[in-house]
Hints:
- It is a single chain.
- This protein is an alpha+beta fold.
- The protein has 2 domains: 2-122; 173-294, Immunoglobulins (Immunoglobulin-like, Sandwich).
- Helix content is 53%, strand content 24%.
- It has a 4-stranded antiparallel β-sheet, with no helix packed on it. Strands 7-4-9-10 form a 4-stranded antiparallel β-sheet, with no helix packed on it.
- The chain is rod-shaped.
Amino acid sequence: MENTNKPSSNKLAYIVGGVALVVIAVILFFFISHRHEYRAVVEEMTEEKFLLTEEFQALALDYDSLHSNNDTLNLMLEQEREKITHLIEEIKTIKATNARKIREYKKELTTLRGVMRSFVVQIDSLNRRNEELTQENIQYRKRHDEIAQSYKELEEVKKTLDKKVEIASQLETRNIETVGLNSKGKTTKKARSVAKIRMCCTIQKNVTAPVGLKTVYVRIQRPDDVLLITSKDNVFTYEEQEINYSASREFEYGGEDVDICVFYTAADGELLSGVYTVDVFVDGFNIGTSTFELK
């Protein structure tokens, strides 16, 4: 009985061993096959992670190229740049096999690209508006310069007209006569006998000259060009300077001819023999000049 069952047991053991070998072989085959497939998938996902990183870096460069004159927009751009930099650092730390995170980053990349396109549109719009404003400013400056030039020309014309009016309104004299008077009021040509010098003239009619109370100033210069004065404080304005005068007198001018006389009291020994020069001034203008001689 023992000898009869022994061959059957051996045969069964061989069968079981053979089946086990076949199963092991199949398992080993599938393991090796899936291992190659797994490696291929990992390599593919690693490449995808690398490309995704490059796309984020390219997007960062695109954001760096965006500039605006708007402070608020520049702040928003800077925030997006910082966000992209942070995402790039995150991508570098995740495993290539983390498909879920890879998908999330791809979605975020699409969103950021959309945001960038929005920024580009806004910046282009602002740039166009800035160009329009620049052109408007250029036109404004041009117009301003033209107006300023026109104003300058009008000022020059006004000055010319004012000068013409001023000249036209300037009073004039005629019949200037200057003589020496002795202490008795008689005319004399002897210098040592002259007590006073009298200058008489006619202020001529001028309808353009302003009427009213005026002052006539007389300057008398000796033959040695010394100005006869009674006080250094006796001054009037002529050509924007304060100058001395010998004698003065107020008179009422009504636009018609008016005869006036002005007197200068000479000090003892002040007068010399020779030709004297007499200048008459009214309203800041020299309106007449004449000479007289003392012996």
